[in-house]
Amino acid sequence: MIEIKRVSADCVYEIRKKILRPNAESLNAVHFDGDFAEGTCHFCAYIDGNVASCVSVMPVKNDGSKAFQMRGLATYPEYRKQGLAKALVKAAEYYSFYECGCDLLWLNARVDVSEFYVRLGYTACGEPFMIPDVCMHIKMCKDKPEYEKERRCCCDNANG
Ligand SMILES: CC(C)(COP(=O)(O)OP(=O)(O)OC[C@H]1O[C@@H](n2cnc3c(N)ncnc32)[C@H](O)[C@@H]1OP(=O)(O)O)[C@@H](O)C(=O)NCCC(=O)NCCS
């Protein structure tokens, strides 16, 4: 059984470390600024009760707009290609745009994963840059009009 749940920060640290920072010495390396900020929300996908995938969104200042940053998206290898990360991104978008009324959702994508986000409607907005000890990243964004357009398309398709 697959379940998507909102969880506390401590539920995402183990999978964050194993997948995103496997060489880090301790869980502290995967504690992000903002993990406990007001408005931050963490999500996990569970398969048969086991954590399979996670993501977090947190409010971040961004050129005056009400922006949220998506961070720490990860799926354990044995659970990949089942739509879990996509489902978590959708849950994070609903929370950020619809429940919190943000104008912009952005993230720093690993360059080799940027196509995943392009398929989900994100646009690169900047030049690639290196996060030391990790890999090349690129900032990617989705704004509220794009999110609303997708939701309208979704509703239209559902209504035939
Ligand atoms: C990237 C990652 C989170 C994807 O997780 P996942 O649960 O397998 O993703 P999904 O099954 O939801 O994939 C949704 C779609 O994206 C595609 N996709 C998955 N990973 C992709 C990638 N690296 N590049 C391009 N497309 C990708 C899938 O094929 C699927 O396509 P479909 O809808 O046509 O079937 C996972 O591979 C991972 O944890 N990687 C290591 C950590 C990482 O790079 N995190 C992202 C940091 S920015």
Structure description:
There is one protein chain. Strands 1, 2, 3, 4, 5, 6, 7 and 8 form an 8-stranded mixed β-sheet that branches. The longest helix is centred in the middle third of the chain and has 16 residues, at 84-99. The chain has a single domain, classed as Gcn5-related N-acetyltransferase (GNAT) (Aminopeptidase). The radius of gyration is 15 Å and the shape is globular. The model has no long low-confidence stretch (mean pLDDT 94). It contains 4 helices and 8 strands, in the order E-H-E-E-E-H-E-H-E-E-E-H. Strand 2 and strand 3 (50-62) form a beta hairpin. By secondary structure, the chain is of the alpha+beta class. The chain starts with a strand and ends with a helix. The chain binds coenzyme A. Residues 19-20, 53, 73-75, 80-86, 109-110, 113, 115-116, 119 line the site of coenzyme A.
Brief rundown of the structure:
With about 160 residues, the chain is of the alpha+beta class.
Mean pLDDT: 94
The total of beta strands comes to 8
Q: What share of residues is helical? A: 25-40%
In CATH terms, what is the fold-level topology?
A: Aminopeptidase
The number of helical elements comes to 4
Ligands bound here? Answer: coenzyme A
Tell me, what's the shape?
A: globular
